[in-house]
Write a structure and sequence with these properties.
The chain has a single domain, classed as 4-Layer Sandwich (Purple Acid Phosphatase, chain A, domain 2). About 25% of the residues lie in helices and about 25% in strands. The protein contains five helices and 13 strands. Strands 5-6-9-10-12-11 form a six-stranded mixed β-sheet, with no helix packed on it. A hairpin with a 2-residue loop joins strand 11 and strand 12. The longest helix has 22 residues. Bound molecules: zinc ion. The site of zinc ion has 7 residues, from loops.
């Protein structure tokens, strides 16, 4: 028996189709909201409040550093703990795996280092960070079939929907994360798609890599016994 989880993903740009008084009519059946970063807190707050659904968000390079220090996945709201049904993911020392709406989500903030600004990391740093998580992810893959259901990152994997300039190059560490962890979705933003002809989705093995710049609604089939 399968059920469909409907996920509203947003990233990088305030999308007026979402930031609208008609949001409930357009997205009222959404189960979960994911933000891939570089968005104002007011916007994420608006979406989460209007739809009354949990939101999971990673920090982008244009988000304040203090949010990233609170954890790789953070909630937009200062006192999120006191708001029922909302999510905050602390975790100063390790990247977090979180379960929401029946889906396991690994959050990876930031982009590749290019000028020393907020939430920028070298490929080596990201590789070491992910290596530390690998035993746990591999065990999950062995017993559950997938390391996680969704990787929610700000930056793309290297060579997949990234760009050649230093700021928008993807992490090579994300390539082997996809290979060994086999998430069903790898969601990212960071690379702006002002041309609708540009590629949004790439299949890598069993993983769909999706650039959710603006907004995207994704339906995820889930076994109901979980
Ligand atoms: Zn960015």
């Amino acid at each position: 028996m399968k059920k469909t989880i409907k996920v509203l993903c947003v990233s990088d740009e305030v999308d007026l189709f979402v930031y609208s008084s008609a949001i409930r009519e357009r997205f009222g059946d959404i189960d979960l909201i994911l933000s891939a970063g570089d968005l104002p807190a007011e916007y994420l707050g608006f979406i989460s409040t209007m739809l009354n659904r949990p939101i999971v968000s990673v920090a982008g390079n244009h988000d304040a550093q203090d949010r990233a220090l609170d954890g790789p996945i953070y909630h937009y709201h200062e006192n999120a703990d006191s708001i029922p049904g909302r999510t905050i993911l602390p975790g100063r020392t390790s990247f977090s795996i979180r379960k929401e709406a029946g889906l396991t989500i690994l959050g990876l903030p930031g982009c590749k280092w290019y000028n020393g600004g907020n939430n920028q990391y070298t490929d080596l740093w990201m590789s070491l960070r992910l290596l530390r998580m690998m035993p746990r992810l591999l065990l999950r893959r062995l017993f559950l079939g997938r390391g996680v259901d969704i990787v929610l990152a700000h930056a793309p994997p290297k060579g997949i929907q990234d760009a050649p300039d230093p700021c928008h190059q993807g992490f090579s560490a994300y390539r082997w994360l996809i290979k060994y962890c086999s998430p069903s979705l790898f969601i990212h933003g960071h690379v702006h798609l002002y041309d609708s002809q540009l590629q949004r989705t790439t299949k890598v093995g069993d993983t769909q890599v999706i650039n959710v710049f603006g907004h995207q609604v994704i339906n995820i089939e889930l076994e109901d016994h979980r």
